[in-house]
Amino acid sequence: DRMGVEVTRVVDTTDVSLKVVAESSRIQLDWEQIKHFHQFASAAYGYWWYIIQSPLGHCCSLGAYLNCCPALCCCRQKQEMMVEGDGFFHPNLAAIRCQLDVKEEDILMFDNRNRIEEVPFFLVADRSTKSLVVSIRGTLSLHDMLTDLRGEPGKMADESVKGVNVDWHGHQGMVNAARYVYRRLHGMETGRDGGKEGRCGRRDLLGLALATPDYAGYSIVVTGHSLGAGTAAILAFLLRARYRGTKVTCYAYSPPGGLISREAAVESEKFTVSVVVGDDVIPRTSLANIATLSRDIKHVTSQCQLPKFKILGYGCMAACCSTSNTPISGELDRLFPGSGVSSPGDSSTDGSHRELLIEEASSILPTNPDTLSSFPSMYLPGRILHVEDIHSANSFTVSEVHRTAFSEILVSPRMLSDHLPNHLDKVFQPNFANL
Prior knowledge:
Layout: E1 7-9, H1 31-43, H2 46-53, H3 55-63, E2 82-84, H4 91-100, E3 107-111, E4 121-126, E5 131-136, H5 142-149, E6 153-155, E7 169-171, H6 172-185, H7 205-211, E8 219-225, H8 227-242, E9 248-253, H9 262-268, E10 272-277, H10 287-303, H11 308-321, H12 327-335, H13 354-364, H14 369-373, E11 383-390, E12 395-401, H15 421-427
Parallel strand pairs: 1-12, 2-3, 5-8, 8-9, 9-10, 10-11
Antiparallel strand pairs: 3-4, 4-5, 6-7, 11-12
Helix pairs in contact: 2-3, 2-4, 6-8, 10-13
């Protein structure tokens, strides 16, 4: 098929409350395209993340792109390139150019300023795919973390935005971040800094680029990782509403789980692909899932006979050293006899003891159903590809799964490492073969 790899599709036959999007209307899964645009999502992290991957080699390659003498005419950035918040030498812009190997004139905008619900992003013309790419950075600062934490549902748009249903909701922090990027791309006031938007704040850069003969017929691609992926998915709704005659596609890498309402998630299957790797906790994180995990933790710790400091200590040891032969293993056997959750060969992340845990919790601890039901269900966007690591074969499998497959948080030693951008780099290596 067009993906170039074998994809197993896993569907949920219980989700019959919604009209299913016709297969012909859903976005096509093209693995080469997914792999290609991951470069743009990774480049949005700038020089810091780029250098730590290979300090010596990347420092040397970065030097050729630095704006070392901006006072000299020969070294000054061209006026067409709008750069904000990237310091004197433009190191983040240099990292973007180094990673993407694009011409200077094809980088149309780079805004590296970062505040709560204001995320760094760049706009670049990708001539190889004839697309204008908006890449949004993921979480890399305290401001970004505070944006992540505002997870209550909020309307994506009001009645003034035609093409976006007013009943569609999204993660409030990322909805606001998407609106910010949308306004910056089109030269609108963002309501920040007293109306002073900088040098490129009053220019409709995206609209002008689409009208430029050099970019005639180009499509729009929105991409990002983590926070950037969630913001990109919501931004894609807004851009599709504005540019009805232009193809808008979103590639979301490791997006947050509690992102958009069910109706919006179904609609996003037309233009969005989400990629989730392994036990990554972020695509499984939503308000409802956090509440469920909290209840499960309270139940297990209340029944566990080990002191709480030992639970924490041995748990950290298991996470760092992948050690299973600890007193916690014995406690798991006592709490869940016959479930096999503590055996080294049987991962506790497969949900095999889920029913037992819920049954015992409901009989021992008082629960408050209203607490869980007060959180509206929120889901991952688009068609979802789940990439799983096969340790014995040193390869990966790719499956298309239903959005409900991420309805619980898996606690495992890999839940954080699977989310890091460098782990996705391994997935998209050129020698990615045995799938």
